[in-house]
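User: I'm putting together a small comparison set for a docking exercise, and I want a reference complex before I start. The sequence is below, and the ligand is cytidine-5'-monophosphate. Could you produce the 3D structure with the ligand included, as structure tokens?
Assistant: Of course. I'll restate your input first, then give the structure tokens for the complex.
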Amino acid sequence: MKLMISAGPTREAIDPVRFITNHSSGKMGYALAEAAVAAGYEVYLVSGPVNLKQPDGLAEFIPVISAADMAKAVKDRFPVMDAFISCAAVADYRPVEISAQKIHKQDGDMILRLERTEDILQSLGQMKAAHQTLIGFAAETEDLRARALSKMERKNLDWIAANTVGVPGRGFQADTNAVTLYARTGEVVDFPLTDKKTLAEQMLQTIFSKKG
Ligand code: C5P
């Protein structure tokens, strides 16, 4: 089975020395990639900038920086994949203009205009063929269930992994996580707090013993 996974944050440049990003460490996506290699899958890892060792045994490692880079890397490869897990924390907005020169400070406030990036997973939801499985993540600080279910619907996903962020031991940066996996079929599976490696193994077993 060919499985593509995206991981980590993206960086959206403001000028040659500054960028907008988020707290994603890439740990969950890398744990999924490692567990998938161990399960014998052909794994394609598309990764934003992280401080993690590249997993052994990948079919391909594709380093990217911005949301636009990630969109291209993922959409180019998706047609030949059996499944895609979108674990990356893709920036939703980027600066309208990237200054070619370093922006110097001036008196008073500064306004930075931002524009939407492409929602990569939503694009894939529109491209998806019947045999392909699409899995998203919903990292939320509130209304976890409702927001996760609405993302599954809007992005045409087969599964969505909902996790709380902003709580110690969960989500960004942490070595542990707890998720609830919602399936399009209505199935709901709770995974209590555990290390991301164990969680990754359990999630893959649940998702791929049912389909693919
Ligand atoms: O940002 P949001 O909460 O909508 O993210 C939910 C899912 O959509 C995640 O799996 C994330 O990887 C994906 N996403 C994306 N492109 C974006 C924003 C989010 O693929 N621009």
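The two ends are 8 Å apart (CA to CA). The first strand starts at residue 2 and ends at 7.
User: Thanks, that's exactly what I needed.
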